[in-house]
# Entry
Amino acid sequence: MRMHWLMALMFGISLAQAMAADGITGLWMTSVTLAILVASILFHELGHCWMAVHHRGHADKILLWPLGGLSFIDYDRHPSNQIKVSGIGPLSSLLLSALCFAALVATGIAWHWELVLPYESWIPRGWSLPQIFLLHAARLNLILALFNMLIPAYPLDGGQVLFGLLTLKFGRLRAAQAMVAISIPVGAALAIFGFAMGMIFLGFIGISVIYEAFQLRMLIRNGDLDAHPGMGGGSGSEFDYMPDRPKKKGWWGRWKEKRARAAMAREEQRDEADRARVDAVLDKVSREGIGSLTSDEKRVLDDASRRSRGES
# Structure
């Protein structure tokens, strides 16, 4: 698992805003809520990974980025398998949400349906901090589950489930064409509503949906649908349009690499100097004979001879 730098930046901005608004208390509470969000996304994506492995596939990694989570998974993309792998993520979030609500009730909070409504207070008066954070976890996971399952746009989970169902009924090509026709207006609606309401995450999700739909439409027009990893072709990784980049070494790794290069350069310089001394001694032997050598010059030849035997 790794986190995209944009998500880390957005978390940093959120923490800075919380610190400016409510001081240390705001910073601490926001930190816990962000940790809950990361854990919720990870649990959701692990559901996809588990189901892919269950169907004799494998999971390479999970990327956390501003639009949520990306599971890099490979499995047999038969429509029935795709329905299961895509659907298990929202079900995992729904299960975790139910467990958090149950734990909240177990702490003494009376159950009422207003608890599930996201526009109700997220910090109810008179609640303890553990109860507040349980409420956050329950609502965040419920939102993840409903959003991913109920919006029928590719590549959201609901869109992938719908694609699998349409493929079973009409075939892969017609299912892909239908997903393009559905996803473009849905993505546009998400983007417009998100940015208009100041919900930046939602706006960028809409843009992502539109981008994926146009990419899919281009592949259909070119007859290259098999090249799309999520449509039964390619490597099978779920989001190959964001390829893995080589991991950049940190300062410690760069420092060790620099030291190793310097040591190698010094060793090469010593070897070159030793060869020059040996050549000079051999030249003297050829001119004046071996009896003309001093004790230091004989030692040079002896050292060179030992190194040669050790190398062979």
Observations:
- Strands lie at 2-3, 58-65, 68-74.
